[in-house]
Amino acid sequence: QLQLVESGGGLVQPGGSLRLSCAASGSTTNYYAIAWFRQAPGKEREGVSCINKSGATKKYKGSVKGRFTIARDDSVNTVYLQMDRLTPEDTGVYYCAADSHTYFCSAYQDSRADYWGQGTQVTVSS
Q1: What share of the chain is helix, strand, coil (3-state, %, to 5)?
Q2: In degrees rounded to 5, what are phi and psi of residue 17?
Q3: Which among 17, 36, 61, 111 counts the fewest CB atoms within 10 Å?
Q4: Residue 12 C-alpha from the chain's centroid
Q5: Cα–Cα distance between 13 and 112 in angstroms, integer?
């Protein structure tokens, strides 16, 4: 059973940066594609980014392209989301999720994944 724990959230001013981490235990991350989702108050959860098992394929939601970078380090069973030039619209609870399906990243925004973390709050405000 894979367990996921997110960390790195917090309060940041517009234009600032944060790096989120998704640490896995119970199995090794190289068996899974990993995605990041977020949910803003009063809104549905949405997919933000996804990285496939090899790390060769990375997907991004349109509004974060060029600002967010997803990366994985399977030697420490962790996936990262570097978030730069943050805006108030990036505020929300960020979740990581893992799925063993080879083509998970092709449809990750459907929000169907085998395993989910508990989330970390990101607040962008002046």
Answers
A1: 15, 45, 40
A2: -130, 155
A3: 17
A4: 18
A5: 32
Residues pairing with 20 in the sheet: 81
Partner residues linked to 11 by β-bridges: 123
CA quadruple 109, 111, 113, 119: dihedral sign: positive
> Do residues 113 and 92 lie in contact, with contact meaning Cβ atoms separated by under 8 Å?
no
User: Could you tell me if 45 and 111 are in contact, meaning their C-beta atoms sit under 8 angstroms apart?
Assistant: yes
| pLDDT at residue 2, rounded to an integer | 93
Q: Sign of the C-alpha dihedral, residues 50, 15, 125, 12?
A: positive
Reported as a single tens digit per residue, the pLDDT across 26-44 is 888 888 999 999 999 999 9
